[in-house]
Amino acid sequence: MVIAVDGPAASGKGTIARALATHYGLPHLDTGLLYRAVGIGVLRADADPADEAAALAECGFSDALFHDPALKSEAAGRAASMVSAHPQVRAALLARQRDFAAQAGGAVLDGRDIGTVIAPDASAKLFVTASAPIRADRRHRELVKLGLDVQFEHVLHDIQARDERDSSRSAAPLVMADDAALLDTTDMGIDDAVQRAVALVEARIRTAAND
Ligand SMILES: Nc1ncnc2c1ncn2[C@@H]1O[C@H](COP(=O)(O)OP(=O)(O)O)[C@@H](O)[C@H]1O
Ligand SMILES: Nc1ccn([C@@H]2O[C@H](COP(=O)(O)OP(=O)(O)O)[C@@H](O)[C@H]2O)c(=O)n1
């Protein structure tokens, strides 16, 4: 079984994807980490994330980079959002994600284009969202907990800029797949959101079994 979880920044998609992976005993891939790894590579090379060739040169990173705390920073998120708009970068990272989705037994992946591009035939697709101020509040708390000195207004502005960039790019923009179930977590705590996500996946599986 493949479960696709997409949505904008700090909507809770990673939390939900991890919980679904535990619930169904499936491996999980946070695909945002791939774009963050390229973004941080570009920044460390003192290059411009808007430069497609410079971004493409950073696509050969190893999985070890996923554990680098710098990937969590706002700067990495911003750079990731810029490098992810380059079609050649998306193409370079495609096989890694498709291979993960195709492994025996299935997988859970979260990102922006899982249900539309990476795993269009996924058994269940969720599109997780929440209002921008709520998402900014969650991300702000997360960054403060990590010991980073960031202002709420700055995080909100960053999230809104990323929403705009991710939704308006021509290569695999952030859009809800036609056959995805919408999960708005604005007024839900984590436990409620996870319970609702499991219920939506179960409903999807039941419908598929009856088809
Ligand atoms: N429903 C929720 N209510 C409150 N906090 C949440 C909820 N879902 C996630 N969070 C918290 O918000 C932050 C961002 O969640 P995360 O799952 O990483 O989002 P995303 O993967 O969409 O960027 C984390 O600190 C997480 O614990
Ligand atoms: N499948 C994906 C995952 C992330 N991304 C890009 O990578 C950036 C960082 O993704 P992320 O999932 O780590 O970000 P958050 O939602 O956790 O803030 C996003 O703003 C997107 O531009 C993408 O284009 N496609």
Quick tags:
single chain, Rossmann fold, binds cytidine-5'-diphosphate, 5-stranded parallel β-sheet, 9 helices, 211 residues, globular, 54% helix, alpha/beta, binds adenosine-5'-diphosphate, 5 strands, 11% strand
- Class from helix and strand fractions: alpha/beta
User: Based on the structure given, which CATH architecture is correct?
Assistant: 3-Layer(aba) Sandwich
CATH topology-level name: Rossmann fold
On the 0 to 100 scale, the average pLDDT is 95
Q: What is the H-and-E element order?
A: EHEHHHHEHEHHEH
Identify the overall geometry.
globular
What radius of gyration results from the CA coordinates?
17 Å
CATH superfamily: P-loop containing nucleotide triphosphate hydrolases
Number of domains: 1
* Distinct ligands: adenosine-5'-diphosphate, cytidine-5'-diphosphate
Euclidean distance between termini CA atoms: 16 Å
Task: Just give the CATH class.
Answer: Alpha Beta
Fraction of helical residues? 40-55%
Ranges where pLDDT stays below 50 over 5 or more residues in a row are: none
**Quantity of strands, as a count:** 5
Summarize the main sheet: 5 strands, parallel
Quick description:
Belongs to the cytidylate kinase family. Type 1 subfamily. The protein has helices spanning 13-24, 32-44, 52-56, 74-83, 87-102, 114-118, 132-145, 152-168, 190-210, and strands at residues 2-6, 28-30, 107-111, 124-129, 181-184. It is of the alpha/beta class and 211 residues long.
Structural notes for this entry:
The protein has 211 residues and is of the alpha/beta class. The protein contains nine helices and five strands, in the order βαβααααβαβααβα. The protein is globular and about 55 Å long. It has helices at 13-24, 32-44, 52-56, 74-83, 87-102, 114-118, 132-145, 152-168, 190-210, and strands spanning 2-6, 28-30, 107-111, 124-129, 181-184. 54% of the residues lie in helices and 11% in strands. The model has no long low-confidence stretch (mean pLDDT 95). Strands 2-3-1-4-5 form a five-stranded parallel β-sheet, with helices on both faces. Helix 4 (74-83) runs parallel beside helix 8 (152-168). It has a single domain, classed as Rossmann fold. Cytidine-5'-diphosphate (CDP) is lined by residues 9-10, 14, 31-32, 35-36, 77, 80-81, 84, 111-113, 162, 166. This is Cytidylate kinase. Its EC number is 2.7.4.25. It is found in: Cytoplasm.
